[in-house]
Amino acid sequence: MAYALVLKSAVLLQQGHLAQAYPLLRRSQQLADSLHLDISGRPGEFMLDEAWARYYVARQQYTPAEAHWRTALQKAAASNLNMLRPKLLQELIRFYDARRQPEQAQQYTRVYLALTDSLVRSQGRFYVAQYEGERLEQAQSTQITRLQQAQAVQDLRLRHRNLLPGGAAGALVLLAGLGGVLYWQLRLNRRTLAQLRATQQQLVAAEKWAFVGEVSAGIAHELQNPLHFMKRFADVSTTMLERMDQHAPAGLEYDIMAGLKQNLQEISQHGTRASSIIRDMLAHSRAGTGPRHPTDLNALVTEQAHLAYQGLQAQHPGFQATLTLDLAPELPLLEVAPQDMGRALLNLLINAFYAVQQRANTTESGYTPQVEVRTRQVGDAIEIRVRDNGLGMSEEVQQQIFQPFFTTKPAGEGTGLGLSLSHDIIQKGHGGQLQVQSQPGEFTEFVMTLGA
């Protein structure tokens, strides 16, 4: 009866009949308390706390609603209901996102991502075990069939000795043909299973990143407005102080005004960097979502290389470097998202030119900044290498270089999301590989492999 009351109250809540749903929820709570009903029983899932949470949200009583959402999640975890926990985590994330509580939303987002990864790995192991069992059963059935056929051939040989040569040859041909068919079928099954696994992983990753993108977009939108006003007021205040400089008194008051001006400039600079981080977060959530069509990678590499070089020269007038493009002729067109792939290449090239520019600033005698980009076709894959003779990276830095928000640049010069975004576009968005090789003080080379 308690299960039916909860289901009926859920329908009434969806229709907006809060007054009619409340007595049903009270009666369900009394039955649950008296009978000690668990969240999962023989009739199914007993989602009383979820119904209470939706009731309080509809009444805009968010404190008890939050308590009931958390209680439902705790009960699902205690009962090991792994298929129910992701749903409750998504509801909590949407609840905090709607309440403009980005810290709690991010906390439960991390829990959701860790749980879905664990479920995907468990499901993958189940599929592998299932396939191995089916393959073993198929092998045993094949062996029994072969033994039966061999026995039939032996019986036929004893009954028809005069037809022995022809019958034996026919049986051998039949067995050979059967063995060939079974071998071909086994190879086809293995290839199909591998394709299904890859498709499953891509679908799970796409769903996960779509949800993360939705949450990130909401958080970024809420942060952009206060950042905009903060920068605007800092710029206005700086302008007012500059106008007051003409009539500023000497001594302590002048020092205070100068300190205020410097503080406002730093607020504006950090606000600009925060806006850049938000833009990179949104780009992260959209990685690999652009339309794909056959693309000339040589033309794309050439365009992004010149764009990165010109951008560095605009920031540092007078800087010169040797840009070498070693592009393989007649490179086949590759199905990629040009906008996303161009962003990934541009990030790699910007880092290369930054590295040689930083080494040139050390006033090392005889040093010539060099950046080289090579494209090659290796089997069915296309390989793109971006190499510079800059400062290089240690082994410890190489292990962390693709992690979000990790950067070796000074504070204020980088968000730590450029290489992480390139890594996601190439590997998660296009199924390729991105690796790094480096020697401190000698070189750094990023190797991108696509289409394998």
UniProtKB/TrEMBL annotation:
The keyword Membrane applies. Keywords: Kinase, Membrane, Phosphoprotein, Transferase, Transmembrane, Transmembrane helix. One of its GO terms (molecular function) is phosphorelay sensor kinase activity. Residues 218-452 form the Histidine kinase domain. The chain crosses the membrane at residues 163-184. It catalyses: ATP + protein L-histidine = ADP + protein N-phospho-L-histidine. Its EC number is 2.7.13.3. Gene3D superfamilies: 1.10.287.130, Histidine kinase-like ATPase, C-terminal domain (3.30.565.10). This is histidine kinase. It comes from Hymenobacter psychrotolerans DSM 18569.
